[in-house]
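Renewal narrative, Specific Aim 1. Our central claim is that a sequence can be written position by position from structural information alone. The example that follows is taken directly from our test logs and has not been curated for this report. It begins with the structure tokens describing the chain, in the order in which they were read.
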């Protein structure tokens, strides 16, 4: 049981000014696994002051020196990998093999962004001007609960490598991982104030960070609704705001697609991380003439799912992260039914053989109307929606019928045509005939999925200002 009653500010574990506590529960068993004391706006102010004081000296270090510190953070995290994996399974409900893969990637980001900073061209020459790349200053990072360490790290690592200092406010639903990250950074010996951790609610600690005039940039990952609120608040101080928001991504199967591979990819996608992922392919758009074949394949996939304890070998889908989130996902399943969607499998209630925990039944629907609530809104659970299309143009129309634009996929034997369809999708990433993740390629949304880019060089350059030096000769 974790007792966390301090925040990491100015290189020290510090007692918060607030006394409110939150109990964090194991998502599979609902047993308490930790109690945290929440920080207040006063704690945020202190953390920001410390970050602002530390920033000039951190920026003055060479990229090599910063990379040395960051590589030590990767080592510290790797040394605590078993605990980090356990905690990910307990806080969020993700199954163990996936937890291992994502935590490993998260730990590696500190050393890899250190290396990027070392090889980056900090001064670039145009014909008549010199471009000087500089850190932005103090970065406020606000992150969600679904991949706690990965999403903290994809902000903290490049921000620090670029010479910024950071105040991190993780999600209060899964905050425990944040303390382990702070301990790793402390053990790596980063100078005081370079990294600060404030655990608190969005309404208090989050808004205090967004409105603080000493914060130069807010780097946010979370829901579109909160992203809009942050944009509005940050506009008062004209901060740079980078937003990575929600999604309702589509997989388009063309007439010549390997339908079995396409349905498997769609189902894998909504069951990875139990469907609690921003880029899950939550709409599968299939040729109308192949709808029943697609339904049969989805039924078969559902029959092979094993819902259960995320730590147990053989489990393929774990619980939702919290009771509130379980209710939300089940609410969408009920909405699908009440709006007349066809239920291929699943439905409301607990899965067979499970009588406690935040579990839902993996569910597949068919709808003919892409305006149906379950085809428009982000459900964030193991729920798939199959929609028939009447040819290439119709498939593109349905896929683009969304306020979101995060990811997508196209399956089709004619790869020239598949790429043409991929280019017509208004999203930041499209996979063709297979789902991959490239940590060197930028990842970010179009439209209401956000305006930022994470990963690769673009994810580093997000944290830089560009100064143009022009000399009269
Ligand atoms: P959320 O928006 O509810 O919360 C995210 C963070 O914002 C939390 O730390 C929360 O405390 C904070 N917050 C809440 N209200 C705030 C306010 N008024 N001011 C400042 N901060 C505030 O999101 P969530 O439920 O934690 O995460 C799920 C969402 O995140 C989904 O929509 C998902 O698609 C999205 N997400 C996007 C990406 C991406 O890369 N685009 C990645 C992961 C998750």
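The sequence written for that structure reads:
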């Amino acid at each position: 049981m974790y007792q966390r009653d301090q925040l990491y500010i100015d290189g020290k574990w510090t007692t918060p000014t607030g006394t409110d506590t939150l109990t964090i529960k194991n998502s599979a068993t609902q047993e308490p696994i930790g109690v945290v004391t929440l920080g207040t706006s006063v704690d945020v102010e202190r953390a920001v002051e410390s970050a602002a004081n530390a920033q000039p000296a951190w920026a003055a270090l060479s990229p090599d020196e910063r990379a040395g510190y960051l590589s030590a953070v990767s080592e510290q995290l790797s040394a605590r990998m078993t605990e980090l994996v356990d905690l990910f399974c307990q806080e969020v409900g993700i199954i163990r093999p996936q937890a291992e893969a994502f935590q490993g990637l998260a730990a590696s980001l500190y050393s890899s962004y250190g290396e990027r900073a070392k090889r980056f061209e900090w001064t670039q020459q145009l014909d008549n001007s010199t471009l000087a790349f500089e850190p932005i200053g103090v970065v406020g990072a606000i992150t969600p609960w679904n991949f706690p360490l990965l999403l903290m790290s994809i902000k903290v690592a490049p921000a620090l490598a670029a010479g910024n200092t950071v105040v991190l406010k993780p999600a209060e639903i899964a905050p425990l991982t944040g303390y382990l990250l702070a301990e790793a950074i402390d053990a790596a010996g980063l100078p005081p104030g370079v990294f600060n951790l404030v655990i608190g609610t969005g309404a208090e600690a989050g808004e205090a960070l967004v409105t603080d005039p000493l914060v130069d940039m807010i780097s946010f990952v979370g829901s579109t609704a909160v992203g809009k609120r942050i944009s509005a608040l940050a506009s008062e101080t004209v901060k740079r705001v980078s937003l990575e928001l929600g999604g309702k991504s589509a997989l388009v199967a063309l007439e010549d697609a390997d339908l079995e591979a396409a349905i498997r990819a769609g189902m894998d996608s909504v069951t990875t991380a139990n469907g609690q992922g921003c880029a899950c392919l939550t709409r599968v758009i299939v040729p109308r003439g192949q709808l029943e074949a697609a339904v049969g394949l989805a039924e078969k996939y559902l029959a092979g799912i094993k819902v259960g304890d995320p730590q147990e070998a053989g489990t393929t889908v774990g619980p939702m992260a919290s009771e509130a989130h379980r209710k939300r996902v089940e609410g969408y399943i009920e909405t699908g039914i009440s709006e007349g969607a066809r239920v291929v499998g699943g439905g409301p209630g607990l899965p067979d053989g499970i009588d406690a925990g935040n579990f839902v039944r993996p569910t597949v629907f068919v709808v003919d109307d892409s305006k149906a609530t379950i085809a428009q809104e982000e459900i964030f659970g193991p729920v798939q929606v199959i929609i028939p299309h009447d040819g290439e143009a119709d498939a593109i129309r349905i896929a683009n019928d969304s306020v979101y634009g995060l990811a997508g996929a196209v399956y089709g034997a004619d790869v020239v045509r598949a790429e043409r369809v991929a280019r017509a999708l208004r999203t930041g990433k499209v996979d063709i005939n297979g789902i991959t993740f490239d940590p060197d390629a930028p990842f970010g949304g179009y439209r209401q999925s956000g305006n930022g880019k994470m990963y690769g060089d673009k994810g580093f350059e997000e944290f830089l200002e560009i100064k143009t030096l022009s000399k009269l000769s």
